[in-house]
Amino acid sequence: MAESGFSHEQALAGCSAGRSTSMRALYDHEAARMLGVARRILRDQGQAEDVVHEAFIAIWRHAHTFDPARGSARTWIYSILRHAALRAARRADRQPGAGADRDDDASALDAVVDAAAQRKLESRPDMGRLHDCLQTLDQPRRDCVLLSYVEGCSHAEIASQLEAPLGTVKSWIRRALTSLRECMA
Asked: Who's near 41: CB < 8 A, 6+ residues apart?
């Protein structure tokens, strides 16, 4: 879908063809939002900037693999960003002393599933249908999806926060996404 004349699909096609002007246009259009997403996941400005840079390199290198039959270009771009941010978070967690100043996991869960998060979803007109579909999911599955795709938590982090087995969390997310896909169709 074109947003104010910008086409993510055309920008990716240009990147795939090696046109740096297409990458520049994509960067100008999405970098600020991507930085905000990375900052929410990592809670560190410097790391977030590095991850956005890493994501744009991956987008440039792999633009030829984008398949519009599998989803939107913008979703593909943010999926690359999210995976890069999660990898960075895992690397940071493995370093000695890491996580000392990270927010408490319980507060992250509360922030996602509380009424304020629901109001944010309701207030965005483009999210209305998704919000309705999310409401059809039972609470644990909805929490898993929100933690994963809104907060950027890994499956292991979600399992820890919900005090549920990792395999169960993975199943909940897989089934929830299938239900959402059917509801949105």
From this structure: 48, 82, 85, 86, 89, 151, 152
Q: Which residues pair with 3 in a beta bridge?
A: 6
- The HSE-up count of residue 10 (CA atoms within 13 Å, CB side) is 9
> Rounded to an integer, what distance in angstroms lies between the CA atom of residue 146 and that of residue 141?
9
Distance of CA 122 to the CA centre of its chain: 18
Report how far residue 73's alpha carbon sits from residue 12's, in angstroms, rounded to the nearest whole number: 7
Max distance between CA atoms of the chain, in angstroms, equals: 48
pTM above 0.85, yes or no: no
Q: What is the pLDDT of residues 171-180, one digit of tens each?
A: 888 898 888 8
In angstroms, the CA 27 to CA 150 distance is 22
Structure-block tokens of residue 7? 């086409």
Radius of gyration of the chain (CA): 17
